[in-house]
Specification:
It is a single chain. The chain is α+β, with helices and mostly antiparallel strands and 420 residues long. 46% of the residues lie in helices and 26% in strands. It is built from eleven helices and 14 strands. The strands form two sheets. Strands 7, 8, 9, 10, 11, 12, 13 and 14 form an eight-stranded mixed beta sheet that branches.
Amino acid sequence: MTHTGKRSIVRRNEDIAIRERTQRFKKLYNIGQTITSEIKMDALFRLVIEQTNQVMNTERSTLFLYDDYTEELWSLVATGMTKNEIRIKKDSGLAGWVFQNKKQLIVNDTYKDTRFNLDVDRRTGYKTKNILCVPVFNRAEKCIGTLEALNRRTGNFVDEDAEFLKSISDYVAIAVENSRLYEDIKAYTERLEATIFIAEKLEKIKAQLTKFVPASVAKIMEQEPDKIMGEKILMDVSVLFIDIQGFSGLMENFDQQLVNDMVEKHFSKYLLCVGRHGGELNETSGDGLMIMFKSDTLEHHAREAVAAGMEIVKENQRLNKELSYPWDDVHLHMGINSGKAYVGTTRMMSVTGERLTYTASGLVTVIAARIGKLSENTSLFIGPETYSMIRDIYPCDFIGDCRLKNISELTSIFQVKFLR
């Protein structure tokens, strides 16, 4: 071959290399575009990892982020794997070495490197042949994780590959911070909305209130004020009674301000559960709530009442884990009964002024309160009419035919089973 021919081959190879490098830079630009258009963590990193594979010509890529709470590295997305989360110790494997030393690493024969963690391959059934791993730094130059490219499709990883992966890791760091900022703002907004909602509810249920006007009364006053003191109407309702087990002992043996704080925190969360299911607070006492559910059909409001009760059971468990008091856990009496009651407003006069209530009165309400007193340890007890409406969707245990105070006939009582 002539000297000129050899030079032509060399120049063609150089041209190919330049074009390939140019294509990689274009793909890097696309990753930047992707990051600026997506701020939800899962979707964002799924796109980034897919494009990383394209830029690096690899089978897989994995982003490990550092969890300050558990002091572990965990993968947010692992391309092609059925499980989307892997957790390892912060000093485990090649990713751990890179995170601890804050240095990039190229290993072209992973099974010969003693730092390589074989457990991940064993768990996933995937064989890692070679790895390029770089640290991920945020704008404060703090290492927040690592980015790995696994199994180059052609040849071994070289220093130029590390330069490209480092560029991608810079985009990833920006994306992580943007996504976390977005999640923080969203969480703050949700907390703010919940706080506003609770504040509005608590304004209506404070025990020392001299006048209480629930939503139903407010609506009547707004739309038909002349009917505010109309006759009570006989209708189907479901009534939920809640009170705190052993409340008198708490008030006697512990600081009353601390007990009041507990009541406010617990009841404010329970009201959120009630509100989600269309319930309306009718009566409050120091440690008790009476909540009425009424809608088009008995079946519908009975099911909504039980659904709200089940949410309260779950919320009670969460609050007991989250909040600590000297009397240990807070337990509730809870009872629901359904049937016909007289519903409407009642005006009561006293030396403190006028008080309006919008409530359900009658035997259904009395039985609901009696059923609630029988329950213990935040168990939800229900009467026979409620049970007939919900038994096909909520598993229940038959407690027995019970004699309730001042009720001549036996009442069949059931406990709704709490499914974790």
